[in-house]
Design brief:
- The protein has 378 residues and is of the alpha/beta class.
- It has 10 helices and 12 strands.
- The protein folds into 2 domains: 129 residues, no CATH class; 244 residues, 4-Layer Sandwich (Purple Acid Phosphatase, chain A, domain 2), CATH 3.60.21.10.
- The strands form 2 sheets. It has a 6-stranded mixed beta sheet, with helices on one face. It has a 6-stranded mixed beta sheet with strand order 6-7-8-9-11-10.
- It is elongated, with a radius of gyration of 23 Å.
Length: 378
């Protein structure tokens, strides 16, 4: 009953929000009855499609399921922009009315601008989301870094979300670009998939081609636990990735030792108590003469525990950089960092904006990235 109640609440909210958009825009556009009918039909169709987008990763595989998922997710992206821009328009109209500038012309042209702006943002966001992520190069200064480790590089990919609209060709292009970087190691920092092994194994096959001298590593994100984490861990190991579940490996360069550790997702214990994220455990038993300690942790909020465990660098994802406005404004409510390089005491934390996208194929103001992290002397 709880799931049904939640679904009913979501549907009721979607109906009300679409009504809000229609009532705030259509009267000011001066549409005839044909225009009002077309506008109402469009909003009604959006009301039906948005829930399809929300449930797209669990749609049963039928003849038109993939096309339906695309329509639902595109509708989600457009609806989000319509709602935000309609709300911003109302704020402008309120200020204009208070200031004595609330003319009929302002109401008409601002109402006309809302769908045009929402469509433009959605189109630009679609192009940004579907292109292959660009390479972002980041230098991390490490105190006392041995000469043998100067320039040591890790290629990081994160939050690809292979699923309803991200398939094998998209991932294949990412793998090609990562391999071309020639990094010493590769890190996949979670949220790789949105769906089961049975549904997506074909589309994650390109990961078997990831190649780096010191190996390719994976840590779980929250979406792995929505998708059957235990089965995905087995599958990723089969593909040749080293899965780090509160574990570490040590790599040598000219007599200097470097540790790459990984923790399960910050929320993993809610799904499997044995996977409780623990940076201290990840570092347990490591040699004392390590020059650098690197932690792979899906969520930036693992940083406090990582600093206490003595790590020098944490590589994270999860936030998508907000993916598109205005959701980037809400990320700080849950995470300490949205994107980029930050410091927690002596620990550096790099938060990737993600290499794919979740939900709507839309990125606006938060470009996707493949990150090449290089260690340099402080």
């Amino acid at each position: 009953m709880s799931a049904r109640r939640n679904l009913f609440v979501i549907l009721a909210l979607l109906v009300l929000l679409h009504l809000y958009i229609g009532l705030r825009l259509m009267p000011d556009l001066g549409l005839g009855w044909i225009g009002m009918l077309a506008g109402s039909a469009s909003l009604a169709l959006s009301t039906l499609l948005v829930p399809v987008g929300l449930l797209s990763s669990s749609l049963r595989r039928r003849r038109w399921s993939e096309q339906l998922a695309w329509l639902g997710l595109l509708a989600m992206g457009l609806f989000s922009s319509l709602l935000v821009v309609t709300f911003l328009r109302d704020l402008v109209l309120l200020l204009a009315t208070v200031g004595g500038f609330g003319t009929d012309a302002l109401h008409y042209y601002s109402a006309l601008a809302v769908p045009l702006l929402a469509l433009a943002v959605t189109a630009i966001g679609f192009v940004n989301a579907r292109r292959v992520a660009r390479v972002v190069r980041v230098e991390v200064p490490i105190d006392g870094l041995p000469q043998a480790l100067h320039g040591y590089s890790i290629a990081q990919i994160s939050d690809i979300h292979v699923g309803p609209t991200i398939k094998r060709p998209y991932l294949n292009a990412i793998v090609n670009r990562v391999n071309a970087l020639g990094a010493d190691a590769i890190a996949v920092t979670g949220d790789l998939v949105d769906g089961s092994v049975g549904r997506l194994a074909l589309h994650t096959q390109p990961l078997a081609r990831l190649s780096a001298p010191d190996g390719a590593f994976f840590v779980t994100g929250n979406h792995e636990y929505y998708s059957g984490a235990e089965e995905w861990i087995v599958e990723l190991r089969r593909l040749g990735l080293t899965v780090l579940l509160n574990q570490h490996v040590v790599r040598q360069r000219g007599g200097a030792a470097l540790m790459i550790a990984g923790v399960a997702d910050y929320s993993a214990h809610h799904f499997n108590p044995a996977h409780r994220s623990d940076p201290q455990q990840a570092a347990a038993g490591a040699p004392r003469d390590l020059a650098v300690k690197i932690l792979l942790a899906h969520q930036p909020r693992s940083a406090t525990a990582a600093a206490e465990a003595g790590f020098d660098l944490q590589l994270s994802g999860h936030t998508h950089g907000g993916q598109f406005f205005p959701w980037n404004l809400f990320v700080p409510l849950q995470q300490p960092f949205v994107a980029g390089l930050h410091r927690v005491r002596r620990l550096w934390v790099y938060t990737s904006r993600g290499t794919g996208y979740w939900g709507p194929p839309k990125r606006f103001g938060a470009p996707s990235e493949i990150t090449l992290v290089r260690l340099v002397p402080a």
